[in-house]
Amino acid sequence: MSTSSVVEPPRLTDADDAYANGAHVAASDAIVGRWPNRAAAFRDRLSGESRARLGAAYGPHERERLDWFLPERSAGPSREPPNGVAVFVHGGYWMRFSASDFSHLAAGAVDRGWLTVLPSYPLCPEASLSTIADSIRRAVIAAAELADGPIRLAGHSAGGHLVARLLCEDMALPSDVVTRLDRALSISGVHDLLPLLATSMNQTLQLDRRAAFAESPARQLPRQDFLDRLRVCAWVGADERPEFVRQNGLLDIWRGVGARVATHVEPGRHHFDVVDDLVRSASPMLDWWLGER
C-alpha cells in the first residue's frame, strides 16, 4: 500500500460546528417552525375522528405524558385491533421540544394500521440523560399496555439515541415487552456521546466522561435476549453533517456480538427532512420499520 492511498479523515477540531445542524441547512428555522402547525393539524383531524388520546401520564413528572393515535379501523364500529404498537421518540438534543411538536410524524404508521405513540420526557438541565433514558423506558412499558402485537421503536436525533439506549443490556424491561419488541429504527441518532463533551451545549447537558460513556449505546452491549430476534437499523441523510453520518455507522459495532444491525444513508436528505418519510405510508423507511419479519 502506498502512502498516497491512505485517506485520513479531518480531525474533529470544532465540535460545536460538527453538531450544528441548523447552521448548515438552508431555511432550517422555517422548516422547524412549520412542525408545530403540521402537528396541530394532524391532532385536530384525528381528535375530530375520535382517534387521538392526548396527555396520558406515564410517570409523575409533568412532561412524562403520552400522546397516541389510533388507526381508522380500530376506532370505527368494527374496533379491529391495530397491527401493533409503534413508538416514536422526538429529538431536540435532549433540551427542546415535546411530543406535540411532532404529532404529524405518526401519520404513516397510523395509516398502515399501527397504534402510534409519542412520548414527551423531562429535558436537560433539569434531568440528566440517565433520567431521560429511564423516562423513555417507562414510556415504552406504558405504551405496550395500549394494544397487543409487536412493538416497534423509532427516534430521531436525540430520540434515536434514546431508542438505541433502550436496547442496551443495563436497561430493565419486562419480559413481555422484550418478547414483543422486534424492530428499532434510530434516525440520525447520536450513538457516542463523548464528542459532546467538547460542545457548548454540554453546559446544559452536564455530561462528564463517565456519564457520556455510560449513556453511549455504541459503548455498551445490546441485550443478549434481543440478538436472535430484534432487527435494528441506523438511518441517516446523506446531506447531514459528516459527524452525524459517522455517528450513524457506529451502531454497526453491535454486529460483532451477533446483533442484527443494518445502516442506511438516504440520498438527498438532511437532518430536518430525513424524518419526512414517516409521514408517508408508502416509503422505504416505513417499509423497513413496519414491514413483516
Protein described:
With 293 residues, the protein is an alpha/beta fold. 31% of the residues lie in helices and 16% in strands. Strands 1-2-4-3-5-6-7-8 form an eight-stranded mixed beta sheet, sandwiched between helices. α5 (129-144) crosses α6 (158-166). The longest helix has 21 residues, at 28-48. It is globular.
Structure summary:
This protein is of the alpha/beta class and 293 residues long. It is built from eleven helices and eight strands.
Count of individual helical segments: 11
Helix and strand element order: HHEEHEHEHEHHEHHEHEH
Distance between the termini: 43 Å
Average pLDDT reading: 95
Spans with pLDDT under 50 lasting ≥5 residues? none
Query: Biggest sheet: strands side by side, in what order?
Result: 1-2-4-3-5-6-7-8
Record field, number of beta strands? 8
Structural class: alpha/beta
Strand composition percent: 15-25%
So what's the overall shape? globular
Q: What's the gyration radius in Å?
A: 19 Å
DSSP helix fraction: 25-40%
Sheet with most strands: 8 strands, mixed
Quaternary structure annotation: single chain
Keywords:
eight-stranded mixed sheet, 293 residues, alpha/beta
Any chance you could write out the topology, listing elements then pairs?
Elements: H1 15-18, H2 28-48, E1 52-57, E2 65-69, H3 72-75, E3 85-89, H4 107-111, E4 115-119, H5 129-144, E5 151-156, H6 158-166, H7 175-180, E6 181-187, H8 202-205, H9 209-214, E7 231-237, H10 242-250, E8 260-266, H11 284-290
Helix pairs in contact: 5-6
